[in-house]
Design goal:
- The protein has 307 residues and is α/β, with parallel strands linked by helices.
- It is built from 15 helices and 5 strands.
- The protein has a 5-stranded parallel sheet, sandwiched between helices.
- Helix 9 links the parallel strand 4 and strand 5.
- Helix 4 crosses helix 10, helix 5 packs parallel to helix 10 and helix 14 packs across helix 15.
- It is globular.
- It starts with a helix and ends with a helix.
């Protein structure tokens, strides 16, 4: 593709549009610029709301596959790739997932998290190589993320994953995008031109973060990683999370401190087991067995225990 062709393609994208009414933004007082930005951001949730049916269809399809052992894999370049890596990296401490269960791929690899890797986003072949290294299966879900909806790395990832039989989701911020067209589930969050022309780390990045939050969080709810709105699979890897674990058990059971400490000790620090010990009045090994028989779902384990 020639430089002229690329410029023409970018000029056709809503996310790249120039807004002449903001041409003097650099001459405004700081508070006025902040108000403009805040007003722009306020419209993002509404744009996401318009795509909720598509988002939910994608979540249900991904959750069904993850229940059978599949993985959730994000693939993107630049800001989009970093947001995918961020969302993936937060799943183990929040939901006690295996680090290999939710994976973030960014064009150019780990180096691209903090600096630009020239040409990486333009390579569909690089995306295919990154996915091949993961040994895709039909139970996996690959989410291509790209504000423009045309980034070769994201499009290439979705096309390759679909050819391998994996579920594919395309998340873009422009209508009629190549990425959404390539995926089984296309999600296009059209937030309009950016405050700073073409800076898709702004509204487009916010929209992508909101959708990725939904994809991972609701999928984990569907997988039984929560009990109500409590993070019962939280991994107590630091002092704050250990305190949170005790609070979660207290909120779920209403038990006192001494009972909670006893249940957590008997359960090896596992929050789900501790809750089951207290609510079902069983010992630690029995709680572990009930959870295993229930696929790790606390509500189902409680139902088994109480008949």
């Amino acid at each position: 593709m020639t430089s002229h062709d690329l410029r023409s393609q970018l000029a056709s994208l809503t996310t790249e549009a120039f807004r002449p009414e903001l041409a003097d933004i650099d001459r405004l007082p700081t508070l006025d610029i902040a108000r403009l930005m805040n007003g722009e951001d306020a419209g993002v949730p509404g744009a996401v709301a318009g795509q909720l049916p598509h988002i939910c269809a994608a979540i249900d399809a991904a959750a069904a596959r993850m229940t059978r052992g599949g993985r959730l894999i994000y693939a993107g370049a630049g800001t989009a790739g970093r947001l995918g890596v961020l969302d993936a990296s937060e799943c183990p401490p929040t939901f006690n997932t295996d680090p290999a269960q939710v994976v973030g791929l960014i064009a150019g690899g780990p180096e691209a998290m903090v600096s630009s890797v020239e040409g990486a986003e333009d390579s569909g072949e690089l995306a295919r190589a990154d996915l091949d290294a993961l040994k895709l299966t039909p139970e996996d879900t690959v989410v291509g993320v790209s504000a423009s909806g045309r980034t070769p790395y994201a499009v290439g990832a979705v096309e390759h994953a679909r050819a391998q039989g994996a579920l594919t989701i395309g998340l873009a911020c422009n209508e009629h995008s190549a990425l959404a067209a390539a995926a089984e589930h296309g999600i296009e969050i059209v937030v309009g031109p950016e405050l700073i022309t073409g800076s898709t780390r702004l509204k487009a990045g916010t929209a992508q973060k909101l959708v990725l939050n939904m994809l991972s969080t609701i999928t984990m709810i569907r997988l039984g990683k929560t009990y109500g709105n409590l993070m019962v699979d939280v991994r107590a890897s630091n002092a704050k999370l250990r305190a949170r674990s005790r609070r979660i058990v207290a909120l779920a059971t209403g038990a006192g401190d001494a009972e909670i400490e006893r249940a957590l000790t008997e359960s090896g620090g596992e929050v789900k087991r501790a809750i089951l010990v207290l609510l079902a009045e069983v010992d630690g090994p029995t709680a572990a067995r009930l959870l295993e028989d229930s696929g790790g779902r606390l509500r189902a384990a409680l139902a088994r225990a109480t008949g």
